[in-house]
Amino acid sequence: MAAWTCAGVAALLVVVAFALPQLRGPEWGRHLYAAAAPIFGIWGPHVGWGTGPAVAIAVAVVLFGPDLARRLPWRRLLTVSWLTSVAWTFALAMVDGWQVGFAGRLTRRHEYLWEVGGVRDIGAMLRGFSGRILDFRPDSWTTHVSGHPPGALLTFVLLDRLGLRGGAWAAWLCVLVGASAVAAVAVALDALGAADRARAALPFLVLAPAAVWVGVSADGFFAGVTAWAVALLAVATRQRPGWPVVALVSGLLFGYGLYLNYGLTLMVVPAAMVLAARGFRPAAPALIGVALVVAAFTAAGFSWLDGYHLVVQRYYQGIASERPYSYWVWGNLAATVCAVGLATAAALPEVVRGVGLPAITSRAGLIGRWRAAVDPAALLAAAGLLAIAAADISGLSKAETERIWLPFDVWLLAATALLPRRAASWWLAVQAVAALLLNHLLATNW
Question: Which residues of 248-277 are buried (b: 16+ CB within 10 A; e: fewer)?
Fold first, then answer.
């Protein structure tokens, strides 16, 4: 009953968030700067050549996904899940066509690739990056470049330098890495001693409506990078031979994430949860990895703190100063429901039960009792939820959170592992229908 109640409340939240701008009228809705609020896009029912493959993939995963997830050998299952997620994401993008839905997404006026051709000297770009963050200057960075640390632009510049030029290659990078978050979440669950939970979650991770925004946005790439940072940290907690190197690589990815998106400082939440659940020894090599990345960017001439303070100023130079916090503080959550689906909302009561709080009512052996009681799937989902709550309250994510919060959404999706096995196919169908409706009724901006 609790599952249905949570799913119903989540559905009602989405309905109200979509309906309110229509009821309040165009003048009020104009200040939302999102024609299909709470989603950043416009209403535009359509179909495309990706429609058929997307429906076929959804049907196949709903009918066969849960059984295959239980039976396939582990490594083969991870590979199949990743490739299926890539196919699902690509098919959804192709509903809008090759250019509009895929190859042209990252080449628009406000996107990263718009600036790639102008970067002649990477060192000079890093040294002068902060000086171009503020708006209304002749050399101001375009919107997405100015709103992020230089790691994101640097990634696409390096891709270009390798000869992989243009929007299609950049889109494939985002989709391939973003879809790999499916495997990363499963690896993390397995490393935390919850192999059955990992297998149960994989079909839901594959069919997540979030795939609509993984294909194609750079935030999908960010989600993949940071998902593997957490997954490798979880692997390191096993302390098998070579674990310090694994933890160091995890730290390098966490550090890289800090220079992809300022908001990814909140990845400290799932990292801390993993360490609290299994031990803090990997923290030292992981912190060394983070420090190496920070030192490299700092030595190259970019100050993260200076960039962050300037980005906050740039944020309020734009439409964020007009977007009403009173709507977006809960509208953001409606957008998140659209990305993670009602199945995730239905699993939230199990998350509350699974975080192990009853085990720490007494001080005796507090940590040990909690570690024995906590469910890793509930733990990771709670971490995603806490990160989302912090981002939401900050007011620095008003709108577009269906894209911006993808790095946190992938962990919230771990909650689906807690759904009853007998209901898995039904909830998978709900997830698939939601993704297909979103992608066919709206022309999303990402």
Answer: bbbbbbbbbbbbbbbbbebbebbbebbbeb
Say how far apart CA 110 and CA 125 lie, in whole Å: 18
Helix (H, G, I), strand (E, B) or coil at 269: helix
Element (H, E) at 444: strand 442-444
pTM of the model: 0.96
Closest by CA to 351, choosing from 371, 381, 307, is 381
Picking from 112, 126, 135, 446, the residue whose alpha carbon sits closest to that of residue 304 is 126
Closest CA to 250 of 264, 263, 235: 235
Could you give the maximum distance between any two Cα atoms of the chain, in Å? 63
Q: What is the pLDDT of residues 238-290, one digit of tens each?
A: 999 999 999 999 999 999 999 999 999 999 999 999 999 999 999 999 999 99
The counts of H helices and E strands in the chain are: 25, 2
Q: Is 288 exposed, middle or buried (0-12, 13-18, 19+ CB in 10 A)?
A: middle
Residues composing the chain:
446
Tokens 């980005």 belong to which residue? Answer: 311
Q: Computed from CA positions of residues 71, 77, 80, 83, in that sequence, does the dihedral angle turn out positive or negative?
A: positive
Closest CA to 343 of 215, 435, 269: 435
321: amino acid identity, one letter:
S
Answer whether residue 221 shows pLDDT above 80. Answer: yes
Gyration radius of the chain over CA positions:
21
Residue written as token pair 């700067």: 33
CB 355 within 8 A of CB 376: no
Q: What phi and psi, each to the nearest 5 degrees, are found at residue 191?
A: -65, -30
Tell me if residue 358 falls in helix, strand or coil.
helix
- Do the Cβ atoms of 232 and 428 come closer than 8 Å? no
